[in-house]
């Protein structure tokens, strides 16, 4: 499958890994939008939030149980923001479900 995040999972494209287990991978965003910017992805290819179902949502719950430790491991000590862009209007650029963790500095109170 021609998916850049699947290639990162497969080790075909390098990444700056923060956390990995059998279900998920966390790595630093190549184009950070905050001092600390980490992406957390499921190892199964789920295209976006729109494709989350009762059958595949356990990995999403798993991601959310790991996010606090991933944020800490990445160096975040004073709060963070988690977001997922879904579809064209949200400017989703990689069609593999991912959660941005942003922190390491004071973030703007509002996104827009
Ligand atoms: P989104 O725009 O929400 O789909 O987010 C995709 C994110 O993936 C962007 O913030 C990109 O900077 C990031 N990204 C794209 N390619 C890579 C890569 N090879 N390694 C790390 N981050 C990447």
What does this structure look like?
The mean pLDDT is 97. By secondary structure, the chain is an alpha+beta fold. The protein starts with a helix and ends in a 9-residue tail after the last strand. The longest helix is centred in the middle third of the chain and has 16 residues, at 58-73. A hairpin with a 7-residue loop joins β2 (24-28) and β3 (36-42). It contains two helices and five strands. The chain has a five-stranded antiparallel β-sheet with strand order 1-2-3-5-4, with helices on one face. It has helices at 4-9, 58-73; strands spanning 17-20, 24-28, 36-42, 80-83, 99-103. Adenosine monophosphate (AMP) is lined by residues 4, 13, 15, 29-31, 39, 85, 91-94.
Identify the strand order in the major beta sheet: 1-2-3-5-4
From the spread of the alpha carbons, the general shape counts as: globular
Bound molecules: adenosine monophosphate
Low-confidence stretches: none
Beta fraction: 15-25%
Largest sheet: 5 strands, antiparallel
Question: What brief labels describe this structure?
Answer:
single chain; alpha+beta; globular; binds adenosine monophosphate
Condensed summary:
The chain is α+β, with helices and mostly antiparallel strands and 112 residues long.
Q: Could you outline the blueprint of secondary structure elements for this entry?
A:
Elements: H1 4-9, E1 17-20, E2 24-28, E3 36-42, H2 58-73, E4 80-83, E5 99-103
Antiparallel strand pairs: 1-2, 2-3, 3-5, 4-5
């Amino acid at each position: 499958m021609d998916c850049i995040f699947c290639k990162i999972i497969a080790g075909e494209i390098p990444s700056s890994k923060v956390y990995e287990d059998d279900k998920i991978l966390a790595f630093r965003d190549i184009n950070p939008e905050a001092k600390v910017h980490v992406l957390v992805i499921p190892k199964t290819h789920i295209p976006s939030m729109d494709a989350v179902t009762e059958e595949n949502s356990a990995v999403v719950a798993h991601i959310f149980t790991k996010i606090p430790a991933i944020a800490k491991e990445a160096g975040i000590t004073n709060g963070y923001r988690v977001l997922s862009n879904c579809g064209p209007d949200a400017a989703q650029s990689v069609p593999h479900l991912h959660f941005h963790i942003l922190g390491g500095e004071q973030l703007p109170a509002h996104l827009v």
